[in-house]
Amino acid sequence: MNLTPLRSSVAVLFSAAFLFSLSATLVRAQTCQTSSDMDAATRTALTNTGQRYFDQAAKDNAASLKQNAIPSLASDFGGIENLIKERQPDLSGAQANVKSVFVLDNEQGAPNTRAEFYCGVFGKNGQTATSSAFYLDNLPPAKYAVVLIDATSAKGRTMFSEVLQQMGTDWKLGGLYIKPAQISGHDSDWFLNQARQYKSKGQMHNAWFFYLEARALISPLPFMSTLATDKLYDESQSLQPADLPGGGKTADLPAGTTTYKLTSVVPEAVGNDLDLIVRYQSANVANTNQAYQDNVNVIKALVAKYPEVREAFASVVARAVDASGRDYGTLLAMKDIK
Q: Strand pairing of 273-281 and 258-270?
């Protein structure tokens, strides 16, 4: 199956106004307020604003959301619109519950630097059951808020997370993240148990991928950590395979006479399936015939190198990415990979 482009929640999630990352570089922490720290008026304003933006998304009213977005996001709103349409089956008719609100004050921060926000009470060993941390790169000086919403419907539970920026007396939308809390009825605990089983069988690549998915299903935001995500990180970090790309390093994948430079190999929910997504460097994706053939070559070579993934994933998606960031994706069901 050829996909141009392949739409996915993960790809869209990172199209918001800011660049977020989880690097270990330390800088001066900024100020965070949890719900219990902030005054009643601020807490009510954020809760009501978050609920209103959820209602607009649940009704597929992207136009209203765009009107309430910060200028930099409103000028490039296509990713958010696609995300809302993609997630309509999960949002339409869902009951929304505002789970947590945070105010992240970066008004005194310097431009183009890293900001770290530590929220709640930390113990001598770090995170506690009531703490959270946010790590954001290239965050402009301003006051921000994070609103975490659980949306429950017949389809299951969906994590609906908003990043807001204060502009005057209003809280404008700065980023939107929508993620399922389950895949085919399986939650984070199920994926964690599967990861441990793969580890016990010596399938270390599958174990690593399932640890990643277990973390993803309990973390509403890619730049947020909690006690639960930190525990999973500590348990899994020693298992990260050295032959996979990571930490900004590529990995070589020979396929016939060509060696491809892989930039990431990660699990991702696509519909009700868990697929393996591989991204690699491409000289030019404009030649779609060549890009398609390269994608097929990469998929076959990857599965040949790691045959254990046949047991764990429904499909493999290869995405050729050129220097400008344009990409071309191809999906092959595992049963079709010979």
A: antiparallel
